[in-house]
Amino acid sequence: MNFNIIGYFIYLSITIFIILKVGQICYKNGNIYVAELIPNHADICQKINQVLLLAYYLLNIGYCAMTLISWQKISTLPNLIETIGIKTAIIIFIISILHYLNIIILTKYIHKLIK
User: How confident is the model over 37-50, as pLDDT tens digits?
Assistant: First the structure.
């Protein structure tokens, strides 16, 4: 039996939920962070945060969808669980790397503007 379709559905459900939840949290808390980096420009901060959220969603959901073509045939239930676990862990790792890169880039850029 081929479990790929079931795996795709479960994988996309889990990863899209994680991506949306993390995006909402980062967006809400990011407004405060960006506003502190660029004081007295609340409208610009809001737009920067919206662009970061959109880019985050597009990149991560697009990557999740693209990884589906690299899946091998899944023929057993343990193989299905293993594949979903590995692929989900990769997405979580990518999300964390992107989050820290955004913070580093924004911080360096703002410090460059201030000096």
Answer: 777 887 888 888 88
